[in-house]
Amino acid sequence: MRHVLLALVALSLAQPVAGLAAPSAPVDSTAHPVAELSVRDAIVLGIVEGVTEFLPISSTGHLIIANQLLGLESDKPLTDQAGRPLFYKKPSAKHPDGVPLTLKLAADTYTVVIQFGAIAAVALLYWSQLMSMLRGLLGRDPAGLHLLVALLIAFIPAAVVGLLVHDWIDAHLFSIGAVIVAQVAGAVLMLAVEYWRRRQPAKPADEAAPLQLSPKQAIGIGALQCVAMWPGTSRSMMCIVGGYFAGLNPRRAAEFSFLLGFVTLSAATVFKSYKSGAAMIQVFGWSHVLLGCVVAAMAAAAAVRFFVGFLTRYGLTAFALYRVAIAVILAVGFLR
């Protein structure tokens, strides 16, 4: 619930910044949505986000596919009930014609904002680790502080690179073709890394011991996480691969991936909400945003519990094969 409230605050703060309105009228956040997102669409997107966010199959890639199938990819400029154009960015010296508000822009923002649901699921499932890090910040838990520092170090590369290339990625890589390339490349990487891991000497693991990573190991995982900015790659996959290279077993690699996801997704979702949240609310309204978050939270909680056990027993191979199958289906269905 904290994260849903945070989403509301972030989206509210976004409204005076985004400048969303026809030139002659201010934004009215209570107005009737200009496009309808059905309950079915909100539930479907929530399930897709929750199930895929922490599995190594790419939530962004699956959400792009879902938006295509649900018909939420229109770039046609939207107008208000009086027929006046609605702007994401009003005409200015930088944008003489303005940037029109579209269904695609709102839908892309929606699929990021409902990540708050997945974030809430991790917070509940890994509450003890989060409290350990909080105690560490207060000087009462050295292991928790060590983990917090490792997560922050791993977060820095994605934060820097994300700010630099965010707009370029949105403009050029949110496509089915980009997802297909990433799905296949990710599958090859996963099979190779899993083959390598299974041939490493077995190390005794104390599952009750605190999760520990050196700064060098953390920065390596963070650098690999940057690769996942290409839609279809999977942040979870790159973090788990980085965890393998850092000497973590599958369970611990997944745990660090979830906790790093908590930090990374929180930052990305707040940023996207602040930047484009008002556009999304003006197009879809509030109720389905909250519905998507709730559904995503429930789906993510179930997916995380499943994934940890499955990864521990079988590794990444099955997910690699799934990625290849998805790439083939997409190539046949969308690139004909």
- Return the structural class: mainly alpha
Overall mean confidence score, pLDDT: 84
User: Helix proportion of residues, in percent?
Assistant: 55-70%
How many alpha or pi helices? 13
Low-confidence stretches: 1-31
Count of discrete structural domains: 1
- How widely separated are the two ends? 44 Å
Strand order, sheet with most strands? 1-2
Shape: globular
* Rg over CA atoms: 20 Å
Count of DSSP E strands? Answer: 2
Q: What is the percentage of strand-forming residues? A: under 5%
- Please describe the biggest sheet, giving its number of strands, its sense, and whether it closes into a barrel: 2 strands, antiparallel
Order of helices and strands: HHHEEHHHHHHHHHH
What does this structure look like?
By secondary structure, the chain is mainly alpha-helical. It has one domain (2-21, 28-334). The protein is 69% helix and 1% strand. It is built from 13 helices and two strands; from the N terminus they run H-H-H-E-E-H-H-H-H-H-H-H-H-H-H. The chain has a two-stranded antiparallel ribbon. Helix 2 (39-52) runs antiparallel to helix 3 (59-69). The longest helix has 35 residues, at 250-284. The radius of gyration is 20 Å and the shape is globular.
